[in-house]
Amino acid sequence: MTRKLRIGYGRICQETNAFSPVTSELEDFRRLHLMEGAELEAATSRRGSEVPDMIRNAELSGFRRAVRKLGQGRIEAVPLFSAWAVPAGPLSVACFEQLRDRLLASLRAAGPLDGVFLALHGALRGVAEIPEPEELLLAAVREVVGDEIPITVSMDLHGLLTPGKVEPLTSLAAYKTNPHRDLAQTGFRAGGILVRTALGQIRPTRAWRSLPMLLGGGLTIDFLGTMRPIFRRMRRMEREDPRVLDVSLFMCHVFNDSADLGWSVHVTTDGAPELAERIADEVAEMVWAVRNEPPPAFLPAEAGIEAVRKARLARRLGTVCVTDTSDVVGAGGTGENTRLLAALLEHARDLKSYVPVRDAVAVDQLWEQPLGSQVALEVGGRLDPVLCPAVAVSGTLRAKKDTGAFGRAVTLDLGHVQLILSEQAPLPIKPRFYREMGLEPWRADLVVVKNFFHYRLYYMGVHRKTVPIQTRGITDFEMVLEQQEFNDPVHPRDPVSDWRPADARRRGLVHS
Ligand SMILES: [Zn+2]
Predict the structure, then answer these.
(1) Average pLDDT over residues 14-36
(2) How far is the CA of 115 from the centre of ligand 1 (A)?
(3) Is 494 exposed, middle or buried (0-12, 13-18, 19+ CB in 10 A)?
(4) Helix axes 93-109, 133-145, angle to 10 degrees
(5) What is the pLDDT of residues 254-273, one digit of tens each?
(6) How far apart are the CA of 83 and the centre of ligand 1, in A?
(7) CA 358 to CA 5: how far, in whole Å?
(8) Dihedral (Cα; 450, 456, 458, 464), 10-degree rounding
(9) Phi-psi region of 440 (alpha: psi -120 to 50; beta: other; left: phi over 0)
(10) Average pLDDT, the chain
(11) Which of 37, 113, 443, 488 suits 227 as a labelling partner, its CA being 20 to 30 A distant?
């Protein structure tokens, strides 16, 4: 009997906001998902949960399903090391080295492998010494397993492709939904390509493009007008020609502080390199053609508050979700934005508002005080005193809770504003966030969500209208256009008529 083929699987995944003043440490991964060996095997099994209470099946569960369905009983899935953190600031050197060393140690301990599956994000960044940790990880993994073993990676569609991320791989596939609903399906699709490659059934050939263009978040929802026909076309390409294994489009996390920022396309075909090149060009042309769509308008604070005030019916039937677009925690915002709090305190006295602000120092000060205490203190200004200046507040301590994910948190009743202070970045994408702190979203005129899309799924019952408010912060698209240094002219900051020169330079086909 021939021996089983062995494919190792693991993950190092975080979306980085490189403008955040707070570095990411191993503890940030431990808080969400950090495991290896038998624990990883159990979490990715049919009955397991990759992130308990949050995400049951993600990429690695999808990969394992591909092994069961397509492996013909000839493949053994070997758990390696898996680390996942919520979006936040750049990795510290120590954090990167710990993650890398544990992944490599698990690879070496795994014994001889016939393939490696990794779930990466594609927009992981480190501090200045290690700007592209994913390039370093892939080079290190390649060195351990050698050149002959297929390596397949799944990525978030907000990843940024570079030669260092593309070239070490055998194949690559990204999510096709935004907000992301296909983590497990992507793991299955990418995993299926790897399984079939290991079995000798297919021979992946690839092409990719890097486009000098960025678009603001509101246009990139897969099921709305701008992008829907493009994703449908991509799916049809995969369906109609069996040689087309995967067509992926990367809509680029813009807070990455990369001089080669932009959208990318990656195509995997079976033994058909020219077909891959042709499809990559076709998808690149399709997205280039929509680059001039006007982005959705975000309102300054006072205009946004006025829009909430006018939404009387929405407030009576439920609540209005205010998207804090300058501090989107899902895009790496620190959660400390005090500008929106200050505006609501001053200009929204007739509206009942729920507002979260991250302030570990204030939580610590308030933690030992009895409920019902009258308190006066300054909040914010701890992580980024310039963008999030301290605000003086006074009110009544109403609730205290150790939330786990957001650390300890307290609720302060400031009159028309109910303020939640938390030790970690608050991610109030579910009404449960407020309910756990003693606040019922039904009763609010507005609740602040620090998220662009996902809250819509969870707030469906109470949410009647969204008002995006922009103050100033590290998740402002304008900030990127102002501060980011680019190697090429980039749309929409610069007029660019042809994407090809930048693409050729970025892929290393010509030298600038
Ligand atoms: Zn994403």
Answers:
(1) 95
(2) 26
(3) exposed
(4) 20
(5) 999 999 999 999 999 999 99
(6) 16
(7) 48
(8) 100
(9) beta
(10) 95
(11) 488
